[in-house]
Specification:
single chain, 3-stranded mixed beta sheet, about 150 residues, Immunoglobulin-like
């Protein structure tokens, strides 16, 4: 009887760990119509880090119609976008060492995918955050809410 309970407990713990790991993985697709397939990214407060997976479903090169995902406080979004334009494609349209940026993916072209590990140690559930594409001109429409739940 004790052995059955032990085996059941171990199996439950393994399942819980697998489910927890998946909850900290975020999948976003950028469409050919300059949009993301999600308007909100909500991750559990228990995630110390997320893996942000981005797929570009378009067909154009990254220099013409590239996409990335950047996360920042909503209040900082416009300034991050402006500074990103100056930073250029070589810097993924993100100002190097920008403290306002929580994390970001590389800019990718059509048919490409990328992933980025993003630490959430400075993200607070009580504050307002956004995710957006910082490719010039895209942030006005390619954006959404990022939050901890």
């Amino acid at each position: 009887m004790k052995r059955t309970l032990l085996v059941t407990g171990i199996a439950s713990a393994m399942f819980a760990n697998a489910a927890f790991a998946g909850a900290c993985d975020v999948n976003v697709e950028a469409t050919a119509a300059m949009a993301f397939n999600v308007k909100e990214i909500a991750v559990p407060k228990t995630c110390k880090e997320i893996t942000l997976n981005l797929k570009n479903a378009g067909t154009m090169s990254k220099s013409v119609m590239g996409h990335n995902v950047v996360i920042s406080k909503t209040a900082d979004m416009q300034a991050v976008i402006s500074d990103g334009m100056t930073a250029g494609l070589a810097n993924q349209y993100v100002k190097p060492k920008d403290a306002r940026v929580i994390g970001y993916t590389n800019v990718i072209g059509g048919g490409e995918s990328t992933s980025a590990k993003i630490k959430l140690s400075n993200v607070k559930a009580s504050e307002s955050y956004s995710f957006f594409c910082s490719f010039p001109g895209h942030g006005a429409v390619m954006k959404g809410v990022f939050k901890l739940i």
